[in-house]
Design brief:
The chain has three helices and no strands. The protein is an all-alpha fold and about 80 residues long. The radius of gyration is 24 Å and the shape is elongated. It has helices spanning about 1-10, 20-40, 60-80. It has one domain. α2 (about 20-40) packs antiparallel against α3 (about 60-80).
Length: about 80
């Protein structure tokens, strides 16, 4: 009798730590962070004796770091959001 009862028990269901929306927000946050780092790249000069003022453009100094910080904020929101 005891053996039959054990077989009839339902197996434990494995749940994910986060819900579907949490993972979607995490992917969006990662995309925003990646976009920020892509916008930060470049602007250097091949010749070390020539200064390229594009290094200090609005895109690299203001926009890209702001996008990275917004992406990190989205990640924190995704982690703390309840299902």
């Amino acid at each position: 009798m005891a053996a039959k009862d054990k077989k009839q028990e339902t197996p434990l269901k494995q749940d994910f730590v986060f819900g579907k929306k949490n993972y979607q927000f995490m992917l969006i946050g990662l995309g925003v962070i990646a976009l920020g780092f892509i916008l930060m790249s470049g602007g250097g000069s091949d010749d070390p004796n020539v200064f390229n003022p594009a290094l200090y453009s609005f895109r690299r100094i203001r926009l890209a770091p702001t996008l990275v910080l917004i992406g990190f904020g989205i990640e924190v929101y995704a982690i703390l959001r309840k299902n």
